[in-house]
Amino acid sequence: MRQLLHSKAMRTAQSLRHVHVHAKHTPFLFSGFSFPRTTLYHTRALSSASASPFSQQHLEEPDDQHYHHHHKEPDMQRIKLVASRSQTPLSIAQCIKLGESLSTKSLLKNLIFLNRELPVRFSKRILELDSLPEELKKTEPFMNLANNYSSSFHALQEYSDNSRLWFLSPSTYHREEMELDDSEGMQTAIQREYADLLQTVTNRHKQDVVFMAHGISLFKYYQQTRSRPADEIHHFLNSFNRGRLGIRIMVGHHLALQSQLLHPMQHASSSPTASKAPPTMMGLAISTTNSKRVGIIEPQCDIEALINNATQSAQFVFFQHYNTIFPPQVHIQHSKDAGGRRVRFPVVPALLHHILFELLKNSMRATAEFHGLDKTSYPGKMRALTF
C-alpha cells in the first residue's frame, strides 16, 4: 500500500512544474577550509615565462549547427530555481567527526545531505559559466565544461527525483526524509547505488583542470583583444575553482569513507607512507605520514613531510625536463611559535600537496632560467616558512 501511495504521489509531483522543495537543516555542511597559513617564497624576485596565446581559431564562433550538435541546452529555469538555494558550509572538523563515528547509518545520513547539496552546487557552477561572454561560452573548452556540469546536474537531480531516499506526501507535495531502514542490506544497496553515480560524476570531470587551463589562456587573449576588466575575470576564476574544489572534496571524502566502511581490513593494513613519484590530485588520496587518515583527511598531517614530498616530486619533474641532477634546493624554516616542534594540523593532503608542488615546480624552473641551466648550485635557497 505504501509503495502504491508513493508511486501515485511521484506521478502527481512530476505533473507539477513549480513545486517548491523544502530541505531541512543538516549538521553535515560544506563550503571551504581554513588552513594554518603556509608561506613559500624565494630570496630573489624571479621572472616567469609567459604562456603563448592560443590561435584566433579558438575564439571564432562556431556555426549554430555545430554548436547545438555538441551542446545540449540545459533547463535553465530549473537550474536557476535550484541555484537560488543557499550552499551549506562544511568544515574539516565536521568531516573528521563524520569519519570518526563512521557507520552505515551515519554514512547514509551524509548521503542524504549530498543528495540535496550537490545539485545546488552544480547549478551555481553552471550559472557562473553561463555568465561568461558569448565569445567565450561558445569556445570548445567552455562548451565541454558547460556540458559536463549540465550532465552531472541533471544526473544528480534525476536521482534525487526518483530515489528511494524520499517519499512524497500527497497532501502537501513537500518532500520529507524517509525513516532510515534498519536493514543493513537496504542501506548498503542504496549507498552502492549512489556511489556508482558519484564515481560516474567524478570520471566525467577528470578533464576539468585541462579545460580550465585552456580557458585561462583564452581569458588572457580575450582580455588583451577585448579589454575585458581583469578583476571580473579573476573573480570568475576564483569563484569557479573554489566551488569546483568544494564539490571534489565532498564527493571524494564520501567515497573514501564508504570504501573504509566496506573494506576496513584493507585500509587498516595499508601504510600510507611518502612516495617519491609525482602524485595525482584526482584521487584525493595522497598521504605523506603514518598517521591514520579519515576519508581524504589527515587529522594530524605532518606538514614538513608534506613539503618534503612535494619538493621531491618537483625535483623529479625538474630533472626529467632539464636533464640535470642539480635542481634548486628547498630549506624548511619553522616559526618560532612552533617551539621547534614539527607542525601538524588537519588537512586534505592531496589538495595542499598539489598547491605546494605547483609552487615549487614553477619556482625551480624560474630559478634555473634566471641563473642559467649549467649551474651546479644556485645562490641562496628556496625557503618554505610554516606558521
Automatic annotation (TrEMBL):
It catalyses: L-seryl-[pyruvate dehydrogenase E1 alpha subunit] + ATP = O-phospho-L-seryl-[pyruvate dehydrogenase E1 alpha subunit] + ADP + H(+). Residues 58-73 have a biased composition (Basic and acidic residues). One of its GO terms (cellular component) is mitochondrial matrix. One of its GO terms (biological process) is regulation of glucose metabolic process. The lineage of its organism: Eukaryota, Fungi, Fungi incertae sedis, Mucoromycota, Mortierellomycotina. Its main location: mitochondrion. Pfam families: BCDHK_Adom3. Keywords: ATP-binding, Kinase, Mitochondrion, Nucleotide-binding, Transferase. Its EC number is 2.7.11.-. This is Protein-serine/threonine kinase. SUPFAM superfamilies: alpha-ketoacid dehydrogenase kinase, N-terminal domain, ATPase domain of HSP90 chaperone/DNA topoisomerase II/histidine kinase. It is found in: Mitochondrion matrix. PANTHER family: [PYRUVATE DEHYDROGENASE (ACETYL-TRANSFERRING)] KINASE, MITOCHONDRIAL, PYRUVATE DEHYDROGENASE KINASE. GO terms for molecular function: ATP binding; pyruvate dehydrogenase (acetyl-transferring) kinase activity. Gene3D superfamilies: Alpha-ketoacid/pyruvate dehydrogenase kinase, N-terminal domain (1.20.140.20), Histidine kinase-like ATPase, C-terminal domain (3.30.565.10). Residues 51-73 are annotated as: Disordered. Belongs to the PDK/BCKDK protein kinase family. Residues 89-275 form the Branched-chain alpha-ketoacid dehydrogenase kinase/Pyruvate dehydrogenase kinase N-terminal domain.
